[in-house]
Amino acid sequence: MLSNRVVFLRAVFLSVLIGTGLPSAFAGTPQAETLPVTTSSPEARQVFEQGLARFENDLRVETTVNIWEQAIAKDPNFALAHGFIAFVSRDPIDQATHRKAALELSKNATKGEQLFIAWMADDSNGHFLDAIADMNQVLGLYPHDQNLAWFAGWWLIHLNEHKRAIPFFERTTNFPGSWNELAYCYAAGHDWQKTLAAARKYMEAAPKEANPHDSLAELSRVMGRFDDAFSEYRAALQLDPTFSSAQLGIADTYALTGDEPRARAEYDKAIKMAPTDAQAADWALQSANTYVRENDFEAADRAFRAVASQARAKGLGEQEAEAYRRMALYQKDPQAALELLNKAADVLEADKGMSQGAREQEMAVVLYARVLRDLDAGKLKEARASVDELNKLANSNRRLTILHAYYSASGAVLAAEGNWDDAAQDLEEDDRDPFALRTLLLAYQKLGKPAESKHAAEALSNLNRPTLEQALIVPAFRLQRQTVAGAAH
Amino acid sequence: MPRHARCGIFLLLIGLAVSCSAKQLAVVVEKENPASALTSADLIKILKAQTKVWPDGSAITIVIRDPDSPDMQIALDRLYKTSSDELKALAASHKGAIVVASSDEDLLHIVGSKRGAIGLVDVYSITHDVNVLKIDGRLPLEAGYLLRGK
Hints:
The complex is a heterodimer.
Chain A: H1 4-13, E1 17-18, E2 38-39, H2 42-58, H3 61-74, H4 79-88, H5 92-105, H6 111-124, H7 128-141, H8 146-158, H9 162-170, H10 176-188, H11 192-205, H12 211-222, H13 226-239, H14 244-257, H15 260-273, H16 277-293, H17 297-313, H18 317-330, H19 334-350, H20 356-376, H21 380-396, H22 400-416, H23 420-427, H24 434-446, H25 450-461, H26 468-488
Parallel strand pairs in A: 1-2
Helix pairs in contact in A: 1-2, 2-3, 3-4, 4-5, 4-6, 5-6, 6-7, 8-9, 9-10, 10-11, 10-12, 11-12, 12-13, 12-14, 13-14, 14-15, 14-16, 15-16, 16-17, 16-18, 17-18, 18-19, 18-20, 19-20, 20-21, 20-22, 21-22, 22-23, 22-24, 23-24, 24-25
Chain B: E1 4-7, E2 10-13, E3 23-30, E4 37-38, H1 40-47, E5 61-64, H2 70-80, H3 84-93, E6 98-100, H4 104-113, E7 117-122, E8 130-132, E9 134-135, E10 148-149
Parallel strand pairs in B: 4-9, 5-6, 5-7
Antiparallel strand pairs in B: 1-2, 3-7, 3-8, 3-10
């Protein structure tokens, strides 16, 4: 829910020009402290501001887009409302439609609005250098605009630039949601004291909401504080029994603690609460991971095949392909793994409902898995060919997922070739991938870098992400470290 | 919502990277400079003040940050292949041709307003007042770009 305090703050922070935008000639010397909002309708403006407040507080995309669409219904020529929808929407068709409208309508808006819309359009077209320049220019014009600052932070997080995002959120802590963003940014930098302080501030700022507890639970889990995670997830569910991500969090946490039967029971509850079929299928995949954690690969095969079959029946190509990709990661027979990856690629190709961009992202992850399994089978030439394919993908679609898949795959191949220096540089790009971290640790050892080796070993050992990759690498690595430490004593 | 964001077929937990993200340096020139790309070999010659003029005859001014700054470590590792002290000595022996800017903003102002200037700047500081050059066929943030590091 939107707090009255936040609505009041919007009124203070947004200066509004109704009907008349500032002429471009004033671009270098803005007349307002904050980005002007050009609309012919005061009602549209008010609804638009409510949408901003909503998004900045809880990041609920669908609800926010809905609110901004109501603003556009009141003023169809509302360029900035179209621009914001294009910026935050997850639906590629929605993005394209609103981007086109925003760009056309921005001709009648102020220079600041034009720059904001250019920032959004350049981002969605993968022109990140132009997007950075747009962002810096509009922030330079309106350095005191809190909404712009908040969106700069939000955008930088999406580019994995948490450290750079921090100053923007620190300037906007009058929005309760900024504390949430700050908590995650500090966690990315391993500043646990600040992480917990920010998460608690978020809770104080929104005491009746479930999300602050859910966030604190997730961050506690990242830190390995599983008991705290359980109690905060339960507190979130107590405040809002329909808060499905907290139920999922409980299941994921049981999986990480090694109580797999309990994790499966909790996943079953989460699946029943899932808001969409796609999320239900995602969470069923999480449940199937638990058999891998138990080293029961036959049961895992059965569970993943069941999810694939259900996903196929519901037309969920991403989830069907993901089931095959995950199976490929733990197959003992590399040939069986490669056949599963072919199947995943076929499913992605055949899914006509998926946008090209989304398909390319999914394909990149499948190609990375192929590189790993080709290397396991000693097929260096084939692995190199997949890296070349990933390179082409990365140059046509610059999404972070693809770039990370490319660097991790390239690093794996370079390591297999004994080129440890270049391998380390590539593997450093994605420090959330256990496969890449494991190879990076080896590269540092080969390069004689003890401080970096220690850091990589600790990072890998402390990785508490509820993913299949974590299940395959991290528990075994922890055991190996304990054995080595025990032998040393 | 927590910072869970579904990114394709696997869960990307935004915000939970385990260490600081990589940095990238952009090679920037003033807007009127017709150059759009350089090889790393040519860039190294320019930055070491071995190449002193652009093909159109205009004098090159090299604008860098303090050689001891973290950003310049990438340039030291990947281009100069030398220590910060040696770079300081190079700058001292080429006063006027090599300028040390006090901030990214200062660097962009000098490069954007001085004909023939070329600078190395954190990619997240760039503005529309400068052009970014491709190095070995790649722009910053593209796969395989040279000037990146921790």
